[in-house]
UniProtKB/TrEMBL annotation:
Key words of the record: Membrane, Transmembrane, Transmembrane helix
Region (Disordered): 140-177
CC annotations in GO: membrane
Entry annotated with the keyword Cell membrane: no
Lineage: superkingdom: Eukaryota
Membrane topology label: Multi-pass membrane protein
Residues passing through the membrane, by range: 27-48, 60-82, 88-108
Record's keyword annotation contains Transmembrane: yes
Gene3D superfamilies from the UniProt entry: MFS general substrate transporter like domains
InterPro entries attached to this UniProt entry: MFS_trans_sf (IPR036259)
Name of the protein described by the UniProt record: Major facilitator superfamily (MFS) profile domain-containing protein
Organism: Caenorhabditis nigoni
Primary residence: membrane
Length: 177
């Protein structure tokens, strides 16, 4: 979130520097914005793997990477807008998308202190359980470890252990020597 907001704000500052004919400062802010965007791209892999369950984790990381790279491919066409319109238009578009992405990150659940979900049901319960959005400090810095013995809710742990499970195992023929 900080990297996306940082990139958007730094790009808007560089727009004002270009408008005021301070090209050296504009270049510095553009490079800092590029560093923030690269940092957010690298965080994509970590956070995507934390949000998705084990059974779909590889596919989810791959799809997230593919969509991010589609955005990178479209950025070349947005940059060409500077030839047709004012040179400040592409930077403003990039800044707005970066700020929008930073705002959307606020809607994702906080994953710190929780075990990684193993099933899709674990992911659904993680989202439904007392959601701690990433934008607040609850759970992020104040209570770094969640001491809940049932992190995804009690309904997953209501699995009854009856003799029915053992009887089904007896129906399987055993190997004899």
């Amino acid at each position: 979130m900080a990297a996306l907001f940082g990139s958007g704000i730094l790009l808007l500052i560089s727009v004002f520097m270009v408008y005021n004919k301070k090209s050296t400062l504009a270049l510095i802010f553009m490079l800092l914005s590029k560093a923030c965007i690269q940092g957010s791209f690298n965080i994509l892999y970590i956070f995507t793997s934390e949000l998705n369950p084990t059974v779909v984790r590889n596919s989810a990381v791959g799809i997230s990477s593919m969509i991010a790279r589609m955005g990178a491919g479209a950025s070349g066409y947005i940059a060409i807008l500077s030839d047709v319109t004012m040179p400040l238009v592409p930077m403003t578009i990039f800044a707005c998308f970066s700020l929008l992405a930073g705002c959307l990150v606020l809607l994702l659940p906080e994953t710190q202190g929780l075990p990684l979900p193993d099933t899709i049901l674990d992911s659904v319960n993680m989202v439904k359980r007392k959601p701690k959005p990433c934008g607040t400090l609850s759970g992020t810095f104040l209570n770094a470890v969640d001491d809940d013995p049932q992190p995804y809710g009690a309904e997953l742990y209501r699995k009854s252990t009856t003799d029915d499970d053992e009887e089904s195992d007896e129906s399987i023929p055993q190997k004899t020597a």
